[in-house]
Amino acid sequence: MQCGAKCFLVEIEHNGEKKQVQVKAKSSVRARKTVRIQFEEAVNILSVKEEK
Predict the structure, then answer these.
(1) Mean pLDDT over all residues of the chain?
(2) Do the beta carbons of residue 42 and residue 14 sit within 8 Å?
(3) Residue 24: is its pLDDT beyond 80?
(4) Helix (H, G, I), strand (E, B), or coil: what is residue 34?
(5) Which domain of life is it from (predicted)?
(6) In the chain, what's the furthest Cα-to-Cα distance?
(7) Are 12 and 31 in contact (CB under 8 A)?
(8) Please, are residues 21 and 35 in contact by the beta-carbon 8 Å criterion?
(9) pLDDT confidence of residue 21
(10) What is the pLDDT of residue 1?
(11) How many CA atoms lie within 13 A of 21 on its CB side?
(12) How far is it, in rounded angstroms, from Cα 16 to Cα 31?
């Protein structure tokens, strides 16, 4: 975890299923990038929300 990182809840569609993934990142852009790397770009990102 990096300094200044926040927790994001990313809603994705993977293999026809909707899932929610919790990601720790500095910004919503980095959270999207992390999810794409984790799921090998075969994922549709529906929303990114910062958890409080």
Answers:
(1) 90
(2) yes
(3) yes
(4) helix
(5) Bacteria
(6) 35
(7) no
(8) yes
(9) 93
(10) 61
(11) 23
(12) 21
